[in-house]
């Protein structure tokens, strides 16, 4: 089978349909952040080195996601980089247009504020644009077309390695954490909670994460081979997934200045609080992607 790299093999209709789904995905998945005041303010005062690091981290994340769920079937990393660039561009364009329409960005603001606000919003929007490929793909009413679509769909066709599973968990945790990490409530909850509350939160996060993906046998969940101990999935996937969610949570809190000028106990509690939605996002990522 020849690799689809030539002009003749390029399916423009599928590609532009993917672009349309990307735009819809950017709006669908990033709209809560477009309408969150803390995200607007971050564009004004966020340390530019932290913002630049987040923008850089998002690039390989999009490239790897594109290799799995790009706007069209990709055969090379060059194509994946192309799709990732398009998703980033859609995120920037969509963020700018929505923020202008909502009156968040105005002509009398400084370039520093405008660029910062668009940049921070473009990150979740670009991830949403990429997720739109898998969630908004749809199928033809015709059975043959549906089968053909499935055969051309890298989401259905590609196996996911163990490292790939962990990567998807990191993406899911990051995407959901971006919704809540900038808010003041994360720090407020860290002050209100006692260590016992923290332990209960950790137990609840693990239970929800494990049950959401494995025990409930949802679409995309991991079926254990016959004879495999029941704790195998918990040790192999749930615990590492929660650790990943915790690390992503700590990174998001640091990036958004939520760990500045607070004690180590409050930082730890804030990580535990944010890891709860992060764990759910990590679990849901396998089902979504």
Automatic annotation (TrEMBL):
<feature type="compositionally biased region" description="Basic and acidic residues">
    <location>
        <begin position="146"/>
        <end position="156"/>
    </location>
</feature>
<protein>
    <submittedName>
        <fullName>Putative integral membrane protein (TIGR02587 family)</fullName>
    </submittedName>
</protein>
<feature type="transmembrane region" description="Helical">
    <location>
        <begin position="237"/>
        <end position="256"/>
    </location>
</feature>
<feature type="transmembrane region" description="Helical">
    <location>
        <begin position="49"/>
        <end position="66"/>
    </location>
</feature>
<keyword id="KW-0812">Transmembrane</keyword>
<feature type="transmembrane region" description="Helical">
    <location>
        <begin position="160"/>
        <end position="178"/>
    </location>
</feature>
<feature type="transmembrane region" description="Helical">
    <location>
        <begin position="268"/>
        <end position="288"/>
    </location>
</feature>
<dbReference type="InterPro" id="IPR013416">
    <property type="entry name" value="CHP02587_IM"/>
</dbReference>
<keyword id="KW-1133">Transmembrane helix</keyword>
<feature type="transmembrane region" description="Helical">
    <location>
        <begin position="199"/>
        <end position="217"/>
    </location>
</feature>
<feature type="transmembrane region" description="Helical">
    <location>
        <begin position="15"/>
        <end position="37"/>
    </location>
</feature>
<dbReference type="Pfam" id="PF09622">
    <property type="entry name" value="DUF2391"/>
</dbReference>
<dbReference type="InterPro" id="IPR024464">
    <property type="entry name" value="DUF2391"/>
</dbReference>
<feature type="transmembrane region" description="Helical">
    <location>
        <begin position="86"/>
        <end position="107"/>
    </location>
</feature>
<keyword id="KW-0472">Membrane</keyword>
<feature type="region of interest" description="Disordered">
    <location>
        <begin position="136"/>
        <end position="156"/>
    </location>
</feature>
């Amino acid at each position: 089978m020849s690799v689809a790299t030539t002009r003749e093999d390029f399916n423009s209709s599928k590609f532009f349909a993917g672009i349309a789904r990307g735009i819809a995905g950017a709006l669908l998945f990033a709209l809560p952040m477009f309408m969150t005041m803390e995200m607007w303010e971050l564009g004004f005062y966020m340390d530019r080195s932290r913002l630049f690091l987040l923008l850089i981290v998002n690039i390989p994340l999009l490239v790897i996601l594109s290799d799995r769920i790009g706007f069209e079937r990709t055969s090379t990393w060059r194509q994946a980089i192309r799709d990732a660039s398009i998703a980033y561009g859609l995120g920037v364009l969509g963020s700018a247009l929505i923020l202008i329409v909502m009156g968040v960005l105005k002509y009398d603001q400084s370039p520093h504020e405008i660029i910062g606000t668009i940049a921070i919003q473009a990150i979740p929007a670009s991830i949403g644009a990429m997720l739109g490929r898998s969630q908004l793909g749809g199928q033809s009413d015709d059975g043959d077309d549906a089968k053909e679509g499935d055969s051309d769909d890298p989401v259905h066709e590609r196996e996911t390695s163990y490292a790939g599973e962990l990567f998807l968990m990191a993406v899911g945790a990051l995407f959901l954490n971006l919704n809540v990490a900038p808010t003041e409530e994360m720090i407020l909850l860290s002050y209100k909670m006692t260590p016992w509350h923290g332990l209960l939160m950790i137990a609840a996060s693990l239970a929800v994460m494990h049950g959401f993906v494995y025990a409930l046998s949802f679409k995309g969940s991991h079926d254990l081979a016959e004879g495999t101990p029941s704790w195998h999935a918990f040790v192999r996937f749930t615990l590492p997934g929660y650790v990943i969610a915790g690390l992503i949570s700590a990174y998001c809190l640091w990036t958004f200045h939520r760990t500045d000028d607070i004690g180590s106990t409050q930082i730890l509690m804030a990580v535990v609080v944010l890891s709860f939605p992060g764990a759910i996002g990590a679990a849901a990522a396998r089902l979504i992607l």
